Amino acid sequence: MYADWHPLALNLDIDRVRDMLGQWRLRSSAAGMLARAIALAGARPHLVAGHDVVIPQYLGRLEFVSQLSDLATDVGVPFHEVVLLDSKDSSIRRGAGRASDAELALMYDRLLSLIAARPSAAVVWTRAGRVSDAYRDFIAALSRGATE
């Protein structure tokens, strides 16, 4: 939604980048790392040109969040870190079909650990079916300022 309302904002979905890599499922871990590197490289000229980059991604590893923050610092732009979060039970229901309940529960716990390690990240609480409310709260979080 952000890219729809902000001219030339880049919606840089890493999963879509990964999907462009040939036979990525055979080497999913390497493909994920490569997709993140491609995303970092692609975000740089867009940011330098003065445009926004949004990376709508579940980030369960601190390393990539740090790399994104470092990129923003390097090119002299604000870095906004916003986590969209629902309750654990609702998140598991919303993720049904993408992974097992156990995997989704582990991902949720990993995300909570990441939030604890990044106390400057804004948390936006969401509810299933309330997209407009989540977007409104996301924009409010951005207006409160950069996290780095």
> Can you summarize the main beta sheet?
2 strands, parallel
Query: How large is the count of helical segments?
Result: 7
Strands in their spatial order, largest beta sheet:
1-2
Number of spatially distinct domains: 2
- SSE string, helices as H and strands as E: HEHHEHEHHEH
Gap between N and C termini: 23 Å
Structural class, judged by helices and strands? mainly alpha
Query: Which residues form runs of ≥5 with pLDDT under 50?
Result: none
In helices, the fraction of residues equals 55-70%
The overall pLDDT, averaged over residues, is 93
Beta content: 5-15%
Q: Rg to the nearest angstrom? A: 16 Å
Described by the principal axes of the CA atoms, the overall outline is globular
How many strands appear in the DSSP assignment? 4
Write a structural description.
- The two termini are 23 Å apart.
- The model has no long low-confidence stretch (mean pLDDT 93).
- The protein has 148 residues and is mainly alpha-helical.
- The radius of gyration is 16 Å and the shape is globular.
- It has seven helices and four strands; from the N terminus they run αβααβαβααβα.
- The chain has two domains: 1-57, no CATH class; 78-148, no CATH class.
- The chain has helices at 2-5, 14-19, 28-48, 62-75, 88-94, 101-117, 131-143, and strands at residues 10-11, 53-54, 82-85, 122-125.
- Strands 1-2 form a two-stranded parallel sheet. Strands 3-4 form a two-stranded parallel ribbon.
